[in-house]
Amino acid sequence: MSTTHDLRIPERAEVTPTPAPLLRVRGLSVSYAPPRKGTHLGTGAALRDADLEVRPGEIVGIVGETGSGKTTLARATVGLVAPAAGTIEFAGDDIGGLRGRARRAFRRSGQVQLVFQDPLRSLDPDLAVAELVREPLDIAGTLTRTERQQRVAESLHLVGLDPETVAHRRPRELSGGQRQRVSLARAIATRPRLLFCDEPVSALDVSNRNLVLNLLDRLRVELDLAVVIIAHDLSSLAGIADRVAVFYRGRIVEQGPIRAVLEDPAHPYTALLTASAPSIGHEDRLRPDQLRPAAGTPSWPADLGCVFAHRCPFAHDACADQPVPAVVPQAPGRQVACHDAVVWRERLDHPHPQKESA
Ligand SMILES: Nc1ncnc2c1ncn2[C@@H]1O[C@H](COP(=O)(O)OP(=O)(O)OP(=O)(O)O)[C@@H](O)[C@H]1O
């Protein structure tokens, strides 16, 4: 039996004004392969029914395990893959619906840039740093030759590299941290308003990680950038992101202000992530073993109901076969997709009757 819980909280009397979103993604689904005959749109999609907003000057973290659809959201936003459903608005314009020449023109404008995961693979090994950073400006075609040269030098300075030292080097002649900075310089050369960084620090050692994360924080202020950081682990986002969206199997299962999400996760998967990362969360956080299904728990199909049901210790029949509400407002700025959002915690104190008698 399914139980429904009204998690809506009353409107607050005073609402702090927030700037209009720069990016507004609604019901976005992306499929790399056409849907199989007789199946609904979402089946097999890399991203399903995603809602996300990013405001100017904000850093939003997106976190989830490999293959959960994080990069797909970024690729759809920069126009590298067309949505199967849903809308993508950038600065009030519908960019998800752009096709052909219009889509290429938007990409060339460089207003939204994506820093790829692996600079060694994404940077052309035959080009020198100055050419790599200048290339997006050549493609945009809006600046003179002199302006482009100035912009290349400015962009390298902004990421902490000395143009004189690195301009003529090839990517293989740089350290991992320097290559990451060149990727960033290339991405900011067009002065984008929104930057997606795919795993910007996963290949770096701890000291370089902090340097690059601090650099992103500084760039967002100096260039009034909105930044989306894609990460595998919550801990690399904890000190830098304003908000976080948690992905699981192509769905956003929870999002909200990062501190609130880390300290009081409303989705069992987020709780499992925080429980598994001792450096974040708080003293009362749950233990991983409390958030894993007991032996003998049925293996739920993933496509019909909740994508996390097969790993969720609190799953019941409705989780297996009833669509999860896309968003359940639960607190200001927070959204969670779970049949039993928040109330699953009560089961920790009052175990399910079937389990007591087992
Ligand atoms: N070009 C592609 N063609 C076909 N399938 C793809 C393609 N790119 C990604 N996928 C599939 O789409 C799903 C989501 O992939 P995506 O790269 O968005 O995940 P991710 O969360 O970014 O993973 P990772 O952390 O490993 O980068 C995965 O099942 C992946 O195999």
UniProtKB/TrEMBL annotation:
Keyword Nucleotide-binding found = yes
Keywords of this protein's UniProt record, alphabetized? Answer: ATP-binding, Nucleotide-binding, Transport
Q: Name one GO molecular function term.
A: ATP binding
- A Pfam family per the record: oligo_HPY
SMART domains given in the database record: AAA
- Where does the record place the ABC transporter domain? 25-274
Q: Which family does it belong to?
A: Belongs to the ABC transporter superfamily.
Protein name from the UniProt record: ATP-binding cassette domain-containing protein
Recorded source organism is: Nocardioides humi
